[in-house]
Amino acid sequence: MKKKSLFINFLVSIIFGLLLLYFVFQKIDLSVFFARLDSVNYSWIWFSIIISIFEHIIRAFRWNLLMEKDSDSLTTFNTTIVLIVSYFTSLIFPRFNDFVRCYLISKTNTIKLSTSLGTVVSERIIDVLSLIVLAVLLLIIEYEIFVNLLIDIVDKINFYFINVVFIVIVIVIVLYVFKIFLKRSNFINAKFKEFKSGLFAFKDVYYRWDFLLSTFFLWIIYYLMGYVIFFALQETSHLGFNAGLAVLVAGTLGMIVPVNAGIGAYHFLVASILLNYTISYEAGLFFATLIHGSQVVSLILFGFVSSILLFVIIRSKSKKD
């Protein structure tokens, strides 16, 4: 039953992603589009991929801060490997990466699965708050562009409406069923307490400099991963800080859409916001494809290597136990 559910999730996500890609690329001459690959300065692409390594390291460091009171065996290296493998699996099973990383971290450390799930929810809340701060900053320095981005999203909101309603219904049903079982099961009640412990872990670290700085530098890394690729194309090489911030906000919103790696949604929002910087839709779409494609390639490469390392780590731990 679980395998069938995973397959259905994968199939729906793929179909939805392909529909988005068709919608985004339907008026693009693909032969001309891919001919642009000959003019790309790939040094900047590789530079962006190298920078992305630090994203995983910093996120692993910050996640460890949230889990440290519940485990004394955490290392940044092991957690980084776990994160990369979980992102790697999300290319096949979108939105399952958070559960996967919690399962894997429980296999490599002493922290309980339910507690780590709570810390992930806490981390996601922090990410959303950070995105809101960036959106407000964009609103202040690029008011018209931010408004145009919102208009683009609202214009297409009906396209996502059914998907959003479905997610809300599922969440409500799950919470209702969980509430019933919570009253009847001591086991579930214990797991809920563990989850709650992880969820409120941020109370112990949100004021610490290592947590604040890791959050700050994490978004700096996200920014640089996109910004340096401006220089890979002649059309975007003149763009500056404001455009980089706009791409960061638009791209992050695109990655929220529940499809494999934000396919289609990421491309559309980034290309749309670059129109405000006199970048043609086709050029903006090509730029978005370069960023998105380079990160997918890096996840495949890093994910393959990390999967091998993780196997060794888990096997070594099982022998010690």
UniProtKB/TrEMBL annotation:
Tell whether Manganese is among the UniProt keywords: no
- Is Transmembrane helix one of the keywords UniProt gives this record? yes
- Sorted alphabetically, which InterPro entries does this protein's record hold? L-PG_synthase/AglD
Q: Name one GO cellular component term.
A: plasma membrane
The subcellular localization recorded is: Cell membrane
Q: Where are the transmembrane segments?
A: 6-24, 44-61, 81-104, 125-151, 157-178, 211-233, 239-259, 296-314
Chief subcellular location: membrane
A single Pfam family it belongs to is LPG_synthase_TM
- What is its membrane topology? Multi-pass membrane protein
Keywords, sorted A to Z: Cell membrane, Membrane, Transmembrane, Transmembrane helix
Protein name, entry field: Uncharacterized protein
UniProt source species: marine metagenome
The taxonomy runs:
unclassified sequences, metagenomes, ecological metagenomes
